[in-house]
Design brief:
This protein has 145 residues and is of the alpha+beta class. Helices cover 57% and strands 11% of the residues.
């Protein structure tokens, strides 16, 4: 994981390459699926979300509308009503769904290709057979008691 330090002067420093980087470099890390963490150089606090939000805001001010105003308003209301955990979970679920749908985009015939009437074959090919046998033995013991 790449560690990026943000200094008080707002500069970002990539500790892996020992170079200062820009917001655009952060965007490139994201598009290249690079794992990274941005920390405050003084406090060592993880500020990744803060910097990513700042990147979105900076792009919004340049005319690239990314987030609908209604969503922003809802986020503010939820924050005020102490519903941040609910909001986080909801947005995380949307992200997980989007990531799962990418499986179809990248290879529509991969994991999801199975005949629903031949589920036993699919199940047997995907399940750890030893664990399955142990589970069934446990169920048999419960049934016999």
């Amino acid at each position: 994981m790449i560690k990026i330090k943000k200094y008080a002067n707002r500069r970002l420093y990539n500790t892996e390459t020992s170079t200062y980087i820009t917001q655009e470099d952060i965007v490139n890390l994201i598009t290249n699926n690079e794992e990274f963490k941005i920390i405050n150089a003084n406090s060592n606090e993880d500020i990744t979300s803060l910097v990513l939000t700042q990147i979105i805001l900076d792009r919004e001010t340049r005319g690239s509308k990314i987030i609908p105003e209604e969503l922003l308003k809802k986020l503010i209301i939820n924050h005020k009503q102490n519903k941040t955990n609910d909001t986080y979970t909801f947005l995380k679920n949307i992200t997980d769904f989007a990531n799962a749908s990418r499986l179809f985009d990248n290879n529509p015939n991969s994991e999801i290709k199975f005949n629903p009437f031949d589920f036993k074959e699919y199940f047997n090919s995907k399940v750890d057979k030893d664990r399955y046998k142990k589970t069934n033995k446990s169920k048999d013991l419960i049934k016999s008691n």
